[in-house]
Amino acid sequence: AQSVAQPEDQVNVAEGNPLTVKCTYSVSGNPYLFWYVQYPNRGLQFLLKYITGDNLVKGSYGFEAEFNKSQTSFHLKKPSALVSDSALYFCAVRDRKDTGRRALTFGSGTRLQVQP
Amino acid sequence: GAGVSQSPRYKVAKRGQDVALRCDPISGHVSLFWYQQALGQGPEFLTYFQNEAQLDKSGLPSDRFFAERPEGSVSTLKIQRTQQEDSAVYLCASRGGQEETQYFGPGTRLLVL
Q1: Would you give the distance in Å from CA B98 to the centre of its chain?
Q2: pLDDT per position as a tens digit, A73-83
Q3: Closest residue of chain B to A10, computed from CA coordinates
Q4: CATH code: domain of residue A58
């Protein structure tokens, strides 16, 4: 079975400060990892993914994430937060061993609030 | 028309009514997924199609839920005899054949009264 944990329901950060949104995962094999962002009344918007290769992944809007196999983590980061980054962020995983279902398993989400 | 589209965006149903939710995936995308997102939760898998074949329906919560994709493009999720617990956002996602990223539509928000 695969699972994702996002331990923080909400993260508050001041505009211009760095932000981190935490994610840990559990899979039996090796993971594919994703971050999505959701704005009010909108679907999920893809930010970035880790498939293989470099552990530091860069994505849209200045976001990046670091895959850490030993800690089974994939934390989302941004060097300087913007008020417009305020949204709901979801981490998701798929086990590479899963050649059948291919569905993503999502965390419960972390609400990011960036104060001006 | 580059993205995934869903209709209707909002649906209010009386308990016991049948509803049909439509998904238009990105053109050429082989794989199509349906997820259910309850309020304050992350999306949860319902069912998966590869072309017209429904390869996994293990996430459908009851036999009142039915999905189809007869021509391998547009998909419809049907819920019969809706219950209040069916109230949620229903998200559709599609994925191209050679990549892992799923692209999501805006969702249909279903409210069952």
Answers
A1: 22
A2: 999 999 999 99
A3: B40
A4: 2.60.40.10
| Cα A110 from chain centre | 9
Q: Report which residue type is found at A5.
A: A
Q: What are phi and psi of B86, to 5 degrees?
A: -80, -10
Comparing CA positions, the residue from A44, A62, A64 lying closest to residue A54 is A64
Instruction: Say how far apart CA B52 and CA B19 lie, in whole Å.
Output: 21
Distance CA A61, CA A112 (A): 15
pLDDT in the model for residue B98: 78
pLDDT per residue over A89-98, tens digit each?
Answer: 999 999 888 8
Q: Domain containing A81: what range?
A: 3-115
Which residues from A are below 8 Å from B2, CB to CB? none
pLDDT, tens only, B50-83: 999 999 999 999 999 999 999 999 999 999 999 9
Q: Do A49 and B101 touch (CB under 8 A)?
A: yes
Q: Which domains does chain B have, with CATH numbers?
A: 5-98 (2.60.40.10)
The secondary structure element, H or E, covering residue A57 is strand A56-58
| Structural tokens at position B23 | 């998904």
Task: Fill in the DSSP letter of residue B112.
Answer: E
Smallest CA–CA distance, residue B83 to chain A, in Å, is: 22
